[in-house]
Amino acid sequence: MTKRIQYFDIARGIGIICVVLSHTLLDSQRIDGLSFGVAATWIFRICFSFHMPLFFILSGYFMRPNRKF
After folding, report:
1. What confidence score (pLDDT) does residue 56 get?
2. What's the rounded Cα separation, in Å, for the pair 44 and 35?
3. pLDDT at 13
4. Please, what is the Cα angle at 13 between 61 and 67, to 5 degrees?
5. CB–CB of 50/18 below 8 Å?
6. Which residues have CB under 8 Å from 19's CB, separation 6+?
7. Cα separation of 55 and 13, whole Å?
8. At CA 58, angle to CA 56 and CA 62, rounded to 5?
9. pTM over cut 0.70
10. What is the pLDDT of residues 4-56, one digit of tens each?
């Protein structure tokens, strides 16, 4: 059994929190027709700027080309 690298799990957790937070902000604006405040706009922009690249980097790090699917 291999040992898990803790900081990768922490990075994934931060990414998941950012996905949930930014999608919640997006859906609340779409459903209620609300406009973003200044803080919500910054949170939205920051979260959407790095959460997808973070998942691509982490999944690429753990990919093994010689592994059978």
Report:
1. 81
2. 12
3. 86
4. 30
5. yes
6. 47, 51
7. 11
8. 115
9. no
10. 778 888 888 888 888 888 788 776 666 555 566 777 778 777 877 877 788 78
Cα–Cα distance, 17 to 37 (Å, whole number): 20
40 three-state secondary structure: helix
Provide the pLDDT for residue 3: 79
Query: Could you say which DSSP state residue 29 is in?
Result: H
Given a cut of 60, whether residue 66 has pLDDT beyond it is yes
CA distances (Å), 18 to each of 44, 57, 65, 69, in order?
9, 16, 29, 30
> Residue 67 gets which letter from DSSP?
S
In angstroms, how far is CA 15 from the centroid of its own chain?
3
